[in-house]
Amino acid sequence: MSGFSDTYHNLFLDSVLGTGGTIYASAHTADPGGTGASEIDAGIIPRAAVANSAGMWPAASGGEKSNGLDIAFGEAVGGSGVLATVTHLGFWTAVSG
Description:
This protein is of the alpha+beta class. Helices cover 11% and strands 16% of the residues.
């Protein structure tokens, strides 16, 4: 987000990540944009449930937010056996859709 200070970025990020509940991470082979495009089929790599806690998402700094703990995806469970390169993650409020 250009045009905003790091302080504003920090406030925005902290208002979304680390506020409680559960969010779901999806694995993508290209930029998912706002639609979730290029998500690896959930039958192969299901979305990972991620605690939306302060421990998982420590306070933003310098306009950036990093996860404090690993995000663990389950083992791939199907597909053709061909490995895909995960290049992007998406974060969602639902386990599918």
